[in-house]
Write a structure and sequence with these properties.
16 helices; globular; two-stranded antiparallel sheet; alpha/beta; 8-stranded parallel beta barrel
Length: 406
């Protein structure tokens, strides 16, 4: 197993009555709720937590991109990854990722990811999400009817920019460039491993399998509901005749570890509740613009993780229900080990991403959760997939880098 520490960098100072007074944490959340001095502290606190995760043995550090929101303070995950290149030396830097259709020209992504790969000596995982409807359609104004075509064209240009040896011209529908010739080029050859974060799109499963990329299901419903999506992914893999290597897949799970099951509730419930009630409080009108989700995915019955229906379900959640329904895996180390093993095996994932800083969780508690997980849980998950090789891991990590942690 490869186990990565995932950070959303949430804004943890929303008012107690936020979800009653404001319609959405995303797109039109008021600036009056924002404090730059507090955010200065949060950025450094969160970078400390990522660096600590490497120190205690996590394989990778995950950051991601969102806009116009208090859910995650990372419009540019590349900036955070750049900071981590100088403060870490061993862990993979998993940027999940850059929403390709948002960049004009998309060569900017090819250039910045190449810089990160060289800076980190080949530790970069390049994530290419389509992006949420809130980010792409509402915050960045991209027409949902063209979003996926733009994404696909941008992907092709970036891969060519990384792999074609000669200067070439690119004449796409959305991007035309006479001289494609990026400097620097990535250190990893032919290019950094590509992971595709997704929320459950049928086309994404097949496309990911055809290109031999990793598919990552970033779910906040937890592993029990995630099984439907991951079963769909593995069925797509089987239809295409690809092998069933578990490292083809990744999954994100919220996890809370304490000395006992009772202590887990006392320590973590307020912060988990903050996350589900405030950080995912997205107005129905922003959840999915018309045309964002494809017909094939709608026909498959796949629905968004946010919006009115999801909010209605979440409002009734208590701590026992969070656990029973698998939103969160929490409890003593023995409890967490047993349930995470079930999660990994039933979803057949070789890359587990864990969210250990959740919602309003302060730094000392996030470090406590991270340290307990690293000591008491992680070693017991390492050998769940014997005999399989991870072909989607950065070559610079396995080669080792003496680095320069400062």
């Amino acid at each position: 197993m490869k186990i990565c520490f995932f950070h959303l960098m949430p804004y943890r100072f929303l008012p107690d009555d936020f979800e009653q007074r404001y319609r959405s944490v995303w797109v039109d959340v008021p600036h009056a709720l924002y404090d730059p001095e507090k955010t200065h502290g949060l950025y450094h606190e969160y970078l400390d937590e990522l660096e600590y995760a490497e120190q205690v043995g996590f394989d990778g550090l995950c950051v991601n991109e969102h806009h116009n929101n208090a859910y995650g303070l990372m419009p540019s995950p590349n900036l955070m990854a750049a900071a981590l290149t100088r403060r870490t030396s061993r862990a993979a830097l998993v940027v999940l990722g850059n929403s390709l259709a948002a960049y004009n020209p998309p060569l900017r992504v090819a250039e910045e990811f190449a810089m990160l790969d060289v800076l980190s000596r080949g530790r970069l995982v390049a994530g290419f999400p389509v992006g949420t409807s809130m980010d792409m359609n509402f915050a960045y104004g991209i027409n949902p009817a063209t979003l996926r075509d733009r994404y696909s064209e941008a992907h092709d240009l970036i891969i060519q920019a990384w792999t074609r040896p000669e200067v070439f011209a690119f004449n796409g529908t959305y991007t035309q460039v006479r001289y494609v010739n990026i400097w620097p080029q990535p250190l990893q050859k032919p290019h950094p491993p590509v992971w595709i974060p997704g929320g459950g799109s049928v086309e994404t499963w097949e496309w990911t399998a055809q290109l031999d990329y990793v598919y990552c299901y970033l779910s906040y419903y937890g592993y029990k509901r995630g099984k439907l999506t991951m079963d769909g992914f593995w069925q797509a893999i089987a239809r295409l005749g690809a092998d069933d290597n578990p490292y083809r897949a990744g999954f994100l799970q919220l996890v809370c570890v304490a000395d006992t099951d009772a202590e887990a509730e006392r320590l973590y419930f307020p912060h988990v509740h903050y996350f589900y009630q405030k950080c995912l409080n997205v107005w129905e009108g922003f959840a999915e613009a018309p045309g964002y989700r494809t017909v094939q995915s709608l026909q498959a019955g796949l629905r968004p993780q946010i919006g009115a229906q999801a909010k209605k379900i979440r409002q009734s959640l208590t701590w026992p229900r969070y656990l029973e329904q698998g939103y969160v895996i929490a409890g003593s180390p023995a409890t967490v080990r047993q349930q995470l093993t079930e999660c990994i095996q039933t979803l057949r994932v070789g890359h587990l991403m864990v969210l250990l800083q959740i919602g309003s969780m302060p730094k000392d508690l996030a470090l406590h959760n991270t340290g307990l997980f690293a000591r008491e849980v992680m070693p017991h998950l390492r050998d769940l997939w014997p005999g399989y090789k991870d072909r989607w891991w950065p070559s610079g990590v396995t080669n080792g880098d003496p680095g320069r942690p400062s």
